[in-house]
């Protein structure tokens, strides 16, 4: 009997053995570093196209899915996450429209001033149901330049509501229910409070006295019995039509003790719709370039 040589046995069994595969790594970073990002995506689509028919699925070859690319299966039962809040002002900017320092809260039936982003410069809150303005509404918003509350239900404005708004230039309180005016900020250029219920006793003697930049004053369609006192020299437009004004004096617009005084900035004074005969007060307009609009007989 011949002895089988060990070399022959080794040659017979060699085809039956294969080298063990290297430890598999499913890290996208490693794969992309070796083969590139494009090859990675092609490999992913290859697995999806060729290993989902039930015949070629291999347990030892897991599918590699790139992070944050897409979801293979949607879970309809999952509760959606609430929107991330960048700051405390986000709810207001969901309710209103915030755009480059302007906040638009028009016709949304709010009854109070919403919390505003601190960088707000313009607020448009027209045609809502706001009944009161308070000092805390604008306490932390020092950059406001324009406030518009036209068409609300405002009956009361707390003292000091506008005291910290040193940059405020335009304030509209038109078409509300006001009986009196609050203290106004010093840099106002335009003030509009037409179509309210303001009476003369609701305007203090100092209300307009220090407003040296005020150019446009709209107080028409109220219940004023007289022209407000101490109107600033800066005024260009004064609307007082359709009130209850019955008389004016030589010092209402001019200075009775200075015949050379000219009020040259005034472009328009409207007094029509008042129970006053302007023709009886000729000395009241001697300093004006244009006569007030109204009845003279």
UniProtKB/TrEMBL annotation:
<keyword id="KW-0732">Signal</keyword>
<dbReference type="GO" id="GO:0031012">
    <property type="term" value="C:extracellular matrix"/>
</dbReference>
<keyword id="KW-0339">Growth factor</keyword>
<protein>
    <recommendedName>
        <fullName>Mimecan</fullName>
    </recommendedName>
</protein>
<keyword id="KW-0677">Repeat</keyword>
<dbReference type="InterPro" id="IPR043547">
    <property type="entry name" value="Mimecan/Epiphycan/Opticin"/>
</dbReference>
<dbReference type="InterPro" id="IPR001611">
    <property type="entry name" value="Leu-rich_rpt"/>
</dbReference>
<keyword id="KW-0272">Extracellular matrix</keyword>
<comment type="function">
    <text>Induces bone formation in conjunction with TGF-beta-1 or TGF-beta-2.</text>
</comment>
<comment type="similarity">
    <text>Belongs to the small leucine-rich proteoglycan (SLRP) family. SLRP class III subfamily.</text>
</comment>
<dbReference type="GO" id="GO:0005615">
    <property type="term" value="C:extracellular space"/>
</dbReference>
<keyword id="KW-0964">Secreted</keyword>
<dbReference type="InterPro" id="IPR032675">
    <property type="entry name" value="LRR_dom_sf"/>
</dbReference>
<dbReference type="GO" id="GO:0061975">
    <property type="term" value="P:articular cartilage development"/>
</dbReference>
<dbReference type="InterPro" id="IPR003591">
    <property type="entry name" value="Leu-rich_rpt_typical-subtyp"/>
</dbReference>
<feature type="signal peptide">
    <location>
        <begin position="1"/>
        <end position="19"/>
    </location>
</feature>
<dbReference type="Pfam" id="PF13855">
    <property type="entry name" value="LRR_8"/>
</dbReference>
<keyword id="KW-0433">Leucine-rich repeat</keyword>
<keyword id="KW-0654">Proteoglycan</keyword>
<keyword id="KW-1015">Disulfide bond</keyword>
<keyword id="KW-0325">Glycoprotein</keyword>
<dbReference type="GO" id="GO:0060348">
    <property type="term" value="P:bone development"/>
</dbReference>
<dbReference type="GO" id="GO:0008083">
    <property type="term" value="F:growth factor activity"/>
</dbReference>
């Amino acid at each position: 009997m011949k002895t089988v040589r060990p070399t022959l046995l080794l040659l017979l069994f060699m085809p039956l053995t294969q080298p063990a595969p290297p430890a598999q790594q499913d890290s996208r970073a490693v794969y992309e570093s070796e083969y590139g990002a494009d090859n990675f995506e092609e490999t992913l689509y290859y697995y999806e196209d060729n290993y989902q028919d039930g015949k070629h699925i291999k347990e030892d070859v897991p599918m590699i899915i790139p992070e944050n690319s897409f979801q293979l299966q949607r879970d309809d039962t999952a509760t959606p996450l609430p929107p991330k809040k960048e700051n405390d002002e986000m709810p207001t900017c969901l309710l209103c429209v915030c755009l480059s320092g302007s906040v638009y809260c028009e016709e949304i039936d709010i009854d109070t001033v919403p919390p505003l982003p601190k960088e707000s410069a313009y607020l448009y809150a027209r045609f809502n149901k706001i009944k009161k303005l308070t000092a805390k509404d604008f306490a932390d918003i020092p950059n406001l330049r324009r406030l518009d509350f036209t068409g609300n239900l405002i009956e009361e404005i707390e003292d000091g509501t506008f005291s910290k708004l040193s940059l405020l230039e335009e304030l509209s309180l038109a078409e509300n229910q006001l009986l009196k005016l609050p203290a106004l900020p010093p840099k106002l250029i335009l003030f509009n409070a037409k179509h309210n219920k303001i009476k003369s006793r609701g305007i203090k003697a100092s209300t307009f006295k220090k407003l040296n930049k005020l150019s446009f004053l709209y107080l028409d369609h109220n219940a004023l019995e007289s022209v407000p006192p101490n109107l600033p020299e800066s005024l260009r437009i004064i609307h007082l039509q359709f009130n209850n004004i019955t008389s004016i004096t030589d010092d209402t617009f001019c200075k009775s003790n200075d015949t050379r005084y000219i009020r040259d900035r005034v472009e328009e004074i409207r007094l029509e719709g008042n129970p006053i005969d302007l023709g009886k007060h000729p000395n009241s307009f001697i300093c004006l370039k244009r006569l007030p609009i109204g009845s003279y007989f």
